[in-house]
Design brief:
about 80% helix, about 280 residues, 15 helices, mainly alpha
Length: about 280
């Protein structure tokens, strides 16, 4: 058993993949608790897909792909916030319009590319955990620190806005600014996790660990810690599964997270399926 665990670590790319999986598992799960509490899953999915044209354009210009993804992600977040803030459109409508348009643009750019170009960018659609380079790891770690530090510094503000917007207004909190910060953090987190799980599976890393944690505890700090633990476990298990079973890394990570959720959903004390039947 020890050899089974240690043998892959003799390769540097496996060690990098393990570190990346741990970082992404923590960052996505912590921010995912706010997404679950505020019912922002559709928004997270939309933001994940709208960065596709940014990735393609960055590739064409020879720029870092993470830069293109970050620019499009932040612009999309600000655009959705601006449209919904002025009540020009309902939030889900604005999200749907921007999501469909930008994702279609990304698909159009992909369809006009050569075969090798499409193969290169396929990693960003479905993840390539075992292909994380040292440079990628530094980007993931740097963006992860930014997200976690912001969540820590604005913990009380995010908490109030998430649970009681009326109270937030009464306390004269800058709810508009806090919402924009939350949208930008989601965009940054998507770029952080891009190479690990890919665009197509990004939503699962936001929602699944946090959803499982919500069945185990009602306190936000405990929920964040539990979700982070589940996210890390899913990332590590997915990494080993991808290595030994030769399957897509992003899919392996998401399947591991989903399996944990199913177990929690059935056996969670007090709130699981078996407890409800009793």
């Amino acid at each position: 058993m020890i050899d089974w665990l240690l043998d892959p670590l003799q390769f540097s790319f496996i060690s990098r993949a393990l570190v990346a999986a741990v970082i992404v598992g923590i960052v996505c799960s912590v921010l995912g608790t706010y997404i679950v509490l505020q019912g922002m899953a559709f928004l997270g999915d939309a933001l994940a897909h709208t960065i596709l044209p940014g990735v393609v354009i960055a590739f064409l210009l020879g720029l870092p792909l993470a830069l293109g993804a970050l620019v499009f992600g932040v612009l999309t977040a600000l655009g959705i916030g601006a449209l919904t803030e002025r009540e020009m459109l309902k939030e889900d409508t604005a999200i749907g319009v921007i999501f469909a348009g930008l994702f279609a643009l990304g698909v159009a750019l992909l369809s006009s590319s050569s075969g090798s170009y499409t193969i290169d960018l396929a990693h960003f659609l479905f993840g390539n955990l075992l292909g994380v380079s040292t440079g990628d790891l530094w980007v993931i770690a740097g963006l992860g620190v930014v997200v976690l530090a912001t969540v820590f510094l604005l913990y009380k503000e995010f908490l109030v806005v998430s649970f009681d917007t009326t109270l937030a207004t009464t306390l004269r909190l800058p709810t508009r600014l806090i919402r924009y910060v939350m949208l930008v953090l989601i965009a940054v987190t998507i770029v952080t996790a891009l190479q690990v799980v890919g665009i197509a599976l990004m939503l699962a890393m936001f929602v699944t660990p946090a959803a499982a944690a919500s069945l185990l505890t009602r306190r936000l700090p405990a929920m964040m810690a539990t979700a982070a633990g589940i996210g890390v476990t899913a990332g590590v298990v997915g990494m080993y599964a991808s290595y030994y079973l030769d399957i897509a890394s992003g899919a392996a990570v998401v399947l591991a997270a989903t399996l944990i959720f199913v177990v929690v959903f059935i056996f969670a004390p007090g709130r699981g399926l078996l407890a409800a039947k009793r």
